[in-house]
Design brief:
This protein is mainly beta. Helices cover about 10% and strands about 50% of the residues. The protein has two domains: about 45 residues; about 350 residues, Porin (Beta Barrel), CATH 2.40.160.10. β7 and β8 form a beta hairpin.
């Protein structure tokens, strides 16, 4: 722009100085040439400015997910006097961005619908059209040092712990822990080794020095060759300073029937046992072509703390699908069975769609999903969950439409 001003002044001065020395025709030609050069220079400056802006916007990537769902519940009453049914409309929205000013440094931010519970961003259609809250879902720094196989996460980030077949038995997919985590992975030909560890802060008390937190460590291996893929991982999690049950605990006590749902809680509102959980994840997959992929997966967990009676949990399933479920015609069908004893793991962060996220139950669920447009899917899910201690059962049908997106500003 400075050059443009100089050019305009030049035209004016040349006009004055040469007005007596050149003819009117020559003066007109000279002015036209200067104006043409000026326009070209301004065009180049504007192009350079746009390129600088595009380079800045290229540092951002938008991401998000929107879902609308209908649910039908049928639950047998505890006293066997009949069934309780429920019809529920649900919607969900998550949106955010990743800012990458450098290849070695990223900042993530995200907002989500729902409530303060960490295991769900769902918002129930209720409240007489009242406005609904939006919560901070992600806020983290992602550092990738000089070596690309090292990843450091600080803040509130997506859980880096691998789960076989995306089972989410122990960690719901909506749980974004807070604290710090390190993810190491390195590939040797067809084999990749990975190591994840993190300190997840649960709460902070001004008047107490021992704040509750979780320590999680995982080691694993991925193998890929000619359409075949296998993942094996083992992890250990330990809970520290949990003097009282977590606010998100699914514990419910039925005094009339003298039993409790989910984790065992004592009269003083504390956990009866520690939670030192070992988990093993295994999955196998073979891609025949882009329209047919077969997957087998399973997860086994055991609470190794002393004196625990109901300490085991497992889930296993099979999945038929296209290579990806993104474009029109892609599909997925999976069926899973699980049995979770009461104190196998902490119930506050487990999969919310299974028996309200509680432990002490077994069940079967099946899902059919199909892409009806690019990044738009329709799915139908059926769950049958039964409480182990009383045989109370739930039947849940879900019909949902989901839209995912991830896009840069300039693409």
């Amino acid at each position: 722009m400075k050059n443009a001003i100089v050019a305009v002044l030049s035209i004016f001065l040349i006009s004055l100085s040469l007005s007596a020395e050149i003819t009117e025709k020559e003066r007109t030609i000279l002015k036209k040439e200067i104006k043409t050069e000026l326009k070209e220079e301004m065009r180049e400056e504007l192009k350079a400015e746009n390129n600088r802006m595009n380079k800045f916007l290229d540092m951002f990537t938008l991401h998000g997910k929107a879902k609308v769902k209908y649910e039908y519940y049928s639950r047998e009453k505890i006293d066997r006097s009949g069934d309780v049914t429920r019809h529920r409309g649900v919607y969900m929205l998550k949106a955010g961005f990743v800012f990458r000013p450098h290849d070695y440094f990223r900042v993530g931010f995200g907002l989500g619908s729902g409530s303060e519970t960490p295991t769900s961003a769902n918002e129930t259609m209720s409240g007489n059209f009242s406005s609904k809250p939006i919560y901070l879902d992600l806020a983290y720094i992602h550092v990738v040092p000089y070596f690309s196989w090292i990843n450091l996460y600080l803040g509130k980030f997506k859980n880096p712990i691998f789960t076989a077949g995306k089972t989410h038995m122990i960690w719901d997919s909506d749980v974004n822990p807070e604290g710090a985590a390190i993810d190491l992975s390195y590939r040797f030909g067809i084999i990749k080794l990975f190591f994840n560890t993190g300190i997840y802060v649960l709460d902070e008390f001004k008047a107490e020095s021992d704040d509750p937190f979780l320590s999680v460590t995982q080691v694993g291996m991925n193998l890929k060759k000619s359409g075949f893929q296998m993942n094996i991982a083992a992890s250990y999690s330990d809970a520290f300073n949990m003097t009282k049950k977590l606010e998100q605990s699914r514990y419910v006590y039925e005094a009339d029937y003298d039993f409790s749902y989910s984790n065992t809680i004592l009269a003083d509102d504390t956990y009866a046992y520690d939670y030192n959980v070992i988990t093993v994840d295994v999955d196998f997959a073979y891609t025949f072509d882009k329209y047919f992929k077969l997957s087998l997966f399973g997860q086994f967990a055991v609470n190794t703390a002393s004196d625990v009676e109901d300490r085991f949990a497992h889930i296993a399933g099979i999945k038929f699908s296209s290579e990806k479920v993104k474009k029109l015609g892609d599909y997925e069908f999976n069926i899973r069975y699980r049995n979770v004893e009461k104190d196998a793991y902490i119930d506050a962060f487990s999969e919310s769609s299974f028996y309200y996220g509680r432990t002490g139950a077994w069940g079967v669920d099946a899902t059919v999903k199909a892409a009806i447009w690019n990044n738009v899917t329709l799915s139908v899910c059926a769950n049958i969950d039964v409480a182990s201690n009383v045989g109370e059962g739930h039947v849940i049908f879900e019909f949902s439409k989901t839209r995912n997106f991830e896009k840069g500003f300039t693409t």
